[in-house]
């Protein structure tokens, strides 16, 4: 009887050890996934900030064009100000869906305003001939491409993390251990594509978007 009891105890100890090792491994995996999400989020913030830093010079250059549509410049200025009002940690991915939605909406509005400015600028040959403006167009195009890529990478990383915290055995302890769901960019129309930047310096109308 004693041998049987010792045998059962040994089985329990072995099972406990396996569960402990598996739990530690799963926990460490969640830590790595969470850190990867934060890293991807920091890159998103860096690319958005790069775009934000281009705007003052772009607006000043465009404002120098004779009779340029002032409403377009006001729209960009207001959109940039709205982005600045969204206070969000640039180094840690948010866990509040409402805050994230506000951030995404503000950035999408700014991106839309910049797209409209570039379309309107096609009507001004003198502006298109401005070397500084052409350089800013090229920088903006490159930045929008970076934003599209960094958003995609962030979404992939976040989806992997969110899936992990809902999977067994992590679902049993993830919430208690501080691993919360993290929202990601929704597939809004055109959100995964950079705005079309047409380098059409000959004055012809830009081609319609596909």
Describe what you observe in this structure.
By secondary structure, the chain is mainly α. The chain has a domain at 27-172: de novo design (two linked rop proteins) (Up-down Bundle), CATH 1.20.1440.20. The chain contains 5 helices and no strands. The protein has helices at 2-63, 70-85, 97-121, 125-128, 131-165. Helix 1 runs antiparallel to helix 2 and helix 1 (2-63) runs antiparallel to helix 5 (131-165). It is elongated, with a radius of gyration of 25 Å. Residues 191-210 have low confidence and may be disordered.
Describe the structure using short key phrases.
5 helices; mainly alpha; disordered C terminus; de novo design (two linked rop proteins); elongated; 210 residues
Helicity, in percent?
Answer: 55-70%
Task: Give the overall average pLDDT.
Answer: 83
CATH class category of the domain at 27-172 = Mainly Alpha
Structural class: mainly alpha
Beta-strand content: under 5%
Secondary structure tally, helices: 5
